[in-house]
């Protein structure tokens, strides 16, 4: 199979809509990461996502819709605070998990009674979703457990010869996946940290709590698995600058190609070394994390990651992804 990478225009959107309607997969950009999309009503196409990614079948998918799409037929309950959150943050990097009417294909929700829905803000994504006018289920467009893609080139590296079309919308500006919020109860629960923070949600909904996956429990959302977002090389994680530098030099002395990944205030304290810089500020670190992990796996035998010292806001999402990427 030839995999085409095409800029988003009328011709590529026409092709993308046709492929979706005949049950094929299309990779597309969002403001967070690239997604691997299929028609949410087509069970065979949804199963093709799991097979192509090598994704566990008990890991539910997110349905993406355009800003004018009426989700009322897809959800069974819509609490007032959920409507307020949509007005405040959508289109944008927020996924909301509702009780499902089960109108979508069964595999979308992986046996759960809920449905995750997102309205991306990327203009190219909105054009794609309007062209198909269907809910498009999509996990990140990478092989399972690999680093998420923030460019069409990243998607091509994982899926060349496996899908027909990648819509190229440039680099994803957000860089980490959407916040996932469970809105099935009286209080919204964060299932996955992201660019819409707990504080931002609480300012609209009044309260917001964080949900922690229990041992043996099925994940309610993508991104809750322990090992995730991992580069294809050894990756070590440290909280301390001296420990990170000691590990860097030990690997170097052992003849390894080693690079150090970090950001924020640590950048001003580093000696001359091979550096994968995440940038100085939280938004930069979110935008650059997957890009630098992908760059590092090509250049390095080992990435020594130093946890940025910055905390609060979107750093919760950045630190979550970095920690999962470095788990053995």
Task: List its traits.
2 domains; DHBP synthase; alpha/beta; 328 residues; Rossmann fold
What does this protein look like?
The protein has two domains: 4-210, Alpha-Beta Complex (DHBP synthase), CATH 3.90.870; 234-325, Rossmann fold (3-Layer(aba) Sandwich), CATH 3.40.50.11030. Helix content is 31%, strand content 18%. The chain has helices at 10-21, 43-53, 80-89, 123-132, 152-159, 198-205, 241-253, 282-299, 315-325, and strands at 4-7, 26-28, 35-39, 62-64, 94-99, 114-118, 136-137, 165-168, 179-182, 189-192, 209-210, 234-238, 258-262, 275-277, 302-306. The strands form two sheets. Strands 1-8-2-3-7-4-6-5-9-10-11 form an eleven-stranded mixed sheet, sandwiched between helices.
> For the record, what is the CATH homologous superfamily label of the largest domain?
DHBP synthase
CATH top-level class of the largest domain: Alpha Beta
Q: Helical stretch count?
A: 9
Q: What is the 3D shape?
A: globular
Mean pLDDT: 94
How much beta, percentage-wise? Answer: 15-25%
Q: pLDDT under 50 segments (min length 5)?
A: none
SSE ordering: EHEEHEHEEHEHEEEHEEHEEHEH
In the CATH scheme, what's the topology name of the largest domain?
Answer: DHBP synthase
Instruction: Indicate the radius of gyration in whole angstroms.
Output: 20 Å
| Name given to the CATH architecture of the largest domain | Alpha-Beta Complex
Q: Which structural class best describes the helix and strand composition?
A: alpha/beta
Overall number of domains: 2
Strand order of the largest sheet: 1-8-2-3-7-4-6-5-9-10-11
Beta strand count = 15
The separation of the N and C termini measures 34 Å
Helix residue percentage: 25-40%
| Main sheet makeup | 11 strands, mixed
């Amino acid at each position: 199979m030839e995999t085409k990478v095409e800029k988003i225009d009328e011709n590529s959107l026409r092709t993308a809509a046709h492929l979706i309607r005949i049950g094929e997969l299309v990779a597309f950009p969002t403001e967070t990461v690239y997604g691997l999309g299929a028609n949410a009503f087509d069970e065979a196409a949804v199963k093709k996502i799991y097979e192509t990614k090598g994704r566990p079948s008990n890991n539910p998918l997110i349905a993406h819709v355009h800003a004018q799409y009426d989700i009322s037929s897809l959800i069974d309950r819509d609490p007032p605070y959920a409507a307020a959150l949509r007005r405040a943050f959508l289109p944008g990097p927020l996924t909301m998990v509702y009780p499902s009417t089960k109108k979508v294909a069964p595999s979308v929700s992986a046996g759960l009674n809920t449905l995750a829905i997102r309205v991306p803000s990327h203009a190219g994504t909105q054009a794609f979703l309007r062209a198909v006018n269907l809910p498009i289920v999509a996990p990140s467009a990478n092989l399972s457990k690999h680093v998420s893609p923030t460019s069409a080139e990243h998607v091509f590296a994982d899926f060349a010869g496996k899908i027909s079309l990648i819509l190229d919308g440039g680099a994803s500006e957000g860089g980490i996946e959407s916040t996932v919020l469970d809105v099935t109860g009286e209080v919204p629960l964060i299932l996955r940290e992201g660019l819409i923070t707990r504080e931002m949600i609480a300012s609209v909904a009044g309260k917001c709590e964080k949900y922690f996956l229990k041992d043996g429990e099925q994940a309610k959302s993508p991104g809750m698995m322990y090992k995730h977002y991992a580069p294809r090389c050894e990756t070590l994680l440290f909280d301390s600058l001296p420990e990170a530098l000691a590990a860097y030099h030990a690997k170097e002395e052992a003849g390894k190609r080693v690079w150090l990944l970090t950001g924020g205030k640590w950048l001003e304290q580093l000696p001359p070394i091979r550096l994968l810089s995440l940038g100085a500020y939280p938004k930069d670190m979110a935008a650059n994390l997957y890009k630098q992990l992908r760059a590092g796996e090509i250049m390095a035998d080992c990435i020594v990651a130093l946890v940025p010292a910055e905390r609060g806001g979107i750093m919760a999402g950045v630190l979550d992804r970095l920690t999962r990427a470095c788990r053995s």
